[in-house]
Design a protein that fits this description.
alpha+beta, Immunoglobulin-like, 2 domains, seven-stranded mixed β-sheet, three-stranded antiparallel β-sheet, 3 helices, 12 strands, rod-shaped
Length: 293
């Protein structure tokens, strides 16, 4: 009986110890589990924080991309603005250049006009210096100077009261010396028919034709003396440029026209004289134009 009790006690002690060890082991496992749980909680917290950081990072990246886009847009606007400003400046320079070119062209035209006026004045002075102040239209013969002058002409009748004389006037140097700077006088009687047209220019017209026309060009002598001469029935003409008639050379005024408007029963006579002022030599044409109505 006692022995049985002792065995039961030992077993009880043993079982108690076993359960104590089991309990201790469980406590250890519980402690380990709690530590593991705490670590997991920390890791979970860190993971959550990392997710927040990731989201924040994504947001910052989106903001950065947005800033990049805005910077690109602003650069584009700046580039367009600079281009527009540059185009505006270029346009302004082009307009300024066009204005300057126009002013230069206007100045060049003015200069050309002044040159033409100066040339015209020079010609006027030249012609006026050759214009005789007091010429008696009588033939002056000199043994060493000889000139033959004559008309060729035809009469065209337009109607009973209108006629046109078409003609030419020729001068041949028959002497041994040159004859310089001829002036031709056409004298009309009656003076009402004083008119001469054809390849003869005024001073103003000669300014335009001078650079374009080659060869012999005749112009009217236009000064106060010539106007007075016209009032007495004389028209004086001279070559535009200095002209010298060499021995045996013939110079002609071709294709002139004299319009005739018949008003009365008149006898019309047209004479011609050639005058060389420098040599004081005057010659009357060998023939004349005469019309009887």
């Amino acid at each position: 009986m006692n022995r049985h009790k002792e065995m039961s006690y030992d077993r009880l002690v043993s079982r108690t110890k076993y359960y104590q060890e089991k309990s201790l082991e469980l406590e250890k496992k519980l402690l380990f589990a709690e530590e593991k749980m705490e670590q997991l909680e920390i890791q979970l917290k860190e993971a959550i924080e990392n997710d927040d950081l990731k989201n924040e990072l994504e947001k910052k990246e989106e903001e950065l991309e947005s800033y990049h886009q805005e910077v690109h847009r602003l650069k584009m606007l700046l580039s367009q603005s600079n281009q527009a400003a540059m185009e505006k400046k270029i346009k302004g320079f082009e307009e300024l250049l066009e204005t300057v070119e126009k002013e230069i062209n206007d100045k060049e035209k003015q200069i050309d006009s002044y040159r033409s006026k100066i040339k015209s004045l020079e010609k006027r002075v030249k012609v006026q210096s050759h214009a005789p102040e007091d010429v008696h239209l009588t033939e002056v013969e000199k043994e060493h100077l000889q000139l033959t002058a004559y008309f060729n002409h035809s009469l065209i009748c337009r109607n009973d009261a209108s006629y046109v004389i078409h003609g030419s006037f020729h001068m041949t140097n028959n002497g041994m010396e040159k004859l310089s700077k001829p002036m031709i006088c056409f004298r009309f009687q009656p003076i009402d028919y004083t008119n001469l047209k054809g390849k003869i220019s005024s001073m103003e017209q000669s300014n335009v034709k001078d650079d374009k026309q080659d060869g012999l060009q005749w112009i009217y002598i236009e000064n106060e003396w010539a106007q007075q001469a016209k009032e007495r029935g004389e028209i004086w003409i001279t070559p535009l440029h200095d002209l010298t008639i060499a021995p045996n050379q013939t110079i002609s005024l071709t294709d002139f026209q004299i319009p005739i408007k018949k008003q009365f029963e008149d006898n019309i006579v047209i004479e011609a004289f050639v005058y060389f002022q420098d040599q004081d030599f005057r010659v009357r044409a060998m023939n004349q134009i005469a019309l009887n109505f």
